[in-house]
């Protein structure tokens, strides 16, 4: 069963998408007297085939939904596959049973895999996007994670507040926003964990101008993409971002940045031999 906080997260997620839809999007006629942004609750309830009172309670986090009913609601709200998965996870579905895996054992098991990519920056993240392991190319490109305070050693914090990463990465903002969207899409009950709250508090302290990123309810998958970086003195390097989940812990995530061509591999070889000089990280707190 969903915890109260997760139920509230689900309700806020559904409400945000209801307010984004226009009546015309679902075949309804808009009127000049409409005051509610997006659809009304009664319209979503009717489209979903549920009662208005029950749908109101769902948005308020006071009831739980069956898988079938939640699918009907998400169809009415025209959510995509990522949105449906996120709603299901917030409702307690598709989540592994039992306690969270022991991170130390997972990190030890995956570290040799990370080290097997001598030219490709790679990192292991837990369900909160905390960094559990990384390889030498990752440190050479983005900076050694050991230099970041342990309570801020998190991919979302690095994307928002680490000046070195923002200096090296071209077109930084779309990828950074996608990281936040993917975290919400896969986090599920982890959104209610104390660690998630701690990460968000650090983000509030260190990057308040981006607060709308972690206050938003949009979700998306972190899909494969081309990434351009330009370490000082090395020249531009084209990388391909891919990701996968370790079999031992599907809630964890490995990110891999693979050089796209021969010249990119040569430049990553040079970077590994002569790591980028330090670019100051935004001071914590």
TrEMBL record:
Entries under CDD domains matching the protein: HTH_XRE
Gene Ontology molecular-function annotations: DNA binding
InterPro entries listed in its UniProt record: Cro/C1-type_HTH (IPR001387), Lambda_DNA-bd_dom_sf (IPR010982), MLTR_LBD (IPR041413)
Residues in HTH cro/C1-type domain copies: 13-84
Domain of life: Bacteria
Protein name: Transcriptional regulator with XRE-family HTH domain
PANTHER family: BLL4672 PROTEIN, BLL4672 PROTEIN-RELATED
């Amino acid at each position: 069963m969903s915890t109260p906080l997760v139920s509230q997260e689900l309700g806020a997620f559904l409400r945000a998408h209801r307010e984004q839809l226009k009546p015309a999007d679902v075949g309804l006629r808009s009127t000049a007297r409409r005051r509610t942004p997006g659809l009304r609750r009664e319209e979503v309830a009717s489209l979903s085939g549920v009662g208005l009172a029950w749908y109101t309670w769902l948005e308020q986090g006071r009831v739980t939904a069956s898988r079938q009913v939640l699918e009907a609601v998400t169809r009415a709200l025209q959510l995509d596959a990522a949105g449906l998965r996120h709603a299901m996870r917030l409702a307690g579905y598709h989540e592994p049973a039992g306690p969270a895996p022991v991170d130390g054992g997972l990190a030890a098991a995956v570290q040799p895999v990370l080290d097997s990519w001598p030219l490709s920056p790679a990192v292991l993240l837990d369900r909160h996007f905390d960094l559990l392991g990384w390889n030498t190319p990752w440190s050479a490109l983005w900076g050694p994670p050991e230099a970041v305070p342990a309570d801020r050693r998190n991919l979302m914090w690095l994307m928002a507040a680490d000046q070195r990463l923002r200096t090296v990465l071209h077109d930084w903002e779309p990828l950074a926003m996608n990281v936040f969207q993917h975290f919400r899409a896969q986090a599920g009950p982890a959104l209610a964990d104390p660690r998630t709250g701690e990460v968000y508090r650090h983000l509030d302290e260190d990057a308040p101008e981006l607060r709308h990123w972690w206050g938003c309810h949009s979700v998306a998958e972190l899909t494969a993409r081309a990434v351009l970086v330009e370490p000082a003195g090395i020249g531009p390097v084209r990388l391909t971002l891919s990701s996968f989940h370790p079999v031992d812990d599907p809630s964890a995530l490995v990110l891999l940045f693979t050089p796209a061509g021969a010249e990119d591999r040569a430049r990553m070889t040079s970077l590994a031999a002569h790591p980028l000089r330090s670019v100051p990280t935004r001071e914590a707190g």
